[in-house]
UniProtKB/TrEMBL annotation:
Keyword Coiled coil: yes
Protein name according to UniProt: Uncharacterized protein
Positions of the UniProt region annotated as Disordered: 1-92
The species this protein was found in: Stentor coeruleus
Biased composition (Basic and acidic residues): 75-92
Lineage of the species this protein comes from: Eukaryota, Sar, Alveolata, Ciliophora, Postciliodesmatophora
Amino acid sequence: METKSQVPSPRVAYQKSKAKDKSPNLKISFLPLLRESPKSSHSAKKITKSSPKPQSKKTKAKFQNLTQRNPKNSSLEDHSPGFRELNLDKKTDTKTLDKQEVKQKSQLIIEHLNKILEVKPEKKEFFEEKSIFRRRASCENPQEKVSRISEDLRIFKVENNDDEQDEGCQGVESPETLRNYGEDACLRQENEELKRKLAILEEEYCNDTNELKKNIEKEKFKSNQLKSDLEKCAGKNEILQSKCEGILENFKEKEKRYKIDIEHLKTQLKETREEIQKKNLELAQINEYMQRKRKNSKQKEQQMKDLQEKNQLIESDKNSYIKELESLKSILANTLIELQCQKSSFSSVQSQIQDFSMITIDNLTSFETLQAIKDNYYLLHTNYIKLQQDLYQLQEKSCSNEQNLLTVIEKLKNYSQNTMEGPVVTEHKLMRMKTFTSSNSIDVISQDNGLRLMKKINALESQAGLYKAEIDKLNKDLAYHKKIVEEKHGFISILEKQISSKVD
């Protein structure tokens, strides 16, 4: 017993190292690491809560220093499985584990940790760690952080209480357990070195977080300035939108009026075309009638010529007969003077009777032709008067349509000038306010509206030109038909004069 009290046993060294671990340096391990992934921390938390079989107090005292107190922040659980996970995965008792397997696994874990801490991470890994920390910091609420730290402290206190109870309940242990305690002390020293390295990394982490906070404050200030600018631009944009809506409403109303006027003009055009078609049909009928009359007049002229030729033949025969009679008279003058006188008187009376009968026949035919020509003349005269009246009406309608179209075009031009002057003023105001985004959008909208108005004005002007051209064509057609009617009237008057001269 005296030898045991003089020489410190490995159990006492283990307890002293354990007491050193209870120092406040452990609080640093509760901070989140850059290489920590949220999935591994949540999985470790679930395993600790849902473990059905608790570990024995001796195994806790052996392996608690190889793993960190907080399961969320342990780099061992991120890169390699811890002893707690190994014990929980196996549902059998912890006493069945072989000591050699535990030694091999602990050596592998230590080698893996040394490799991680000795190798310096590259810049890419550092940026990845920063991004992971940002995501975790943004996703985790302050209440969750407080609950997580409180749970870690509670677990740490429970483990300390279990260790104190184990010290009171210690009995005589085997030499194998003493060897294990010596190995645990070596592992504990290595763990202290790892903690020192972790403290250095956490200092770097704190510096990085401070820089990030400064950058975040700068960006917040910039975002507030941008928000104020955006609010100003939004107010201006609303005012300009209201103006644009008013302009568009006026434009739509005027467009509706123009459409109504165009439809009215189209109906008038249809009516005028129908009237022109009717007049063309009447003119065609008149032409057919005139052609028939010409044919009849030609036939009558031929008949007159035939009759004149017959008269000439008769006259020639008559002259021959007269000569013969004169010769006979000269021969029989001495003998039959009285008879010759009677015969001459009788022949003269006879010739006069024949001439009178021929003249009466000619007079009858000429009177009939005169009456027919007069009837045709009266019909043509009435048609000519109607055509003149229709022509005057069409001229009045065309003049009124031209005046209406000119007034509409002048209104459209004035409206287009006003609309083109509007966006220029808005451009000067926008240049003074120095709002680039809103000014560009409003300029584009105003230019588009102006172009649309100009296009519609050009379309209306082209339609007015077409209507004017059609009216000019109608006027030309009426003038042409008027000339034809006047020529026919002159021709009829000439025929009447000829007939009257022949009758006289």
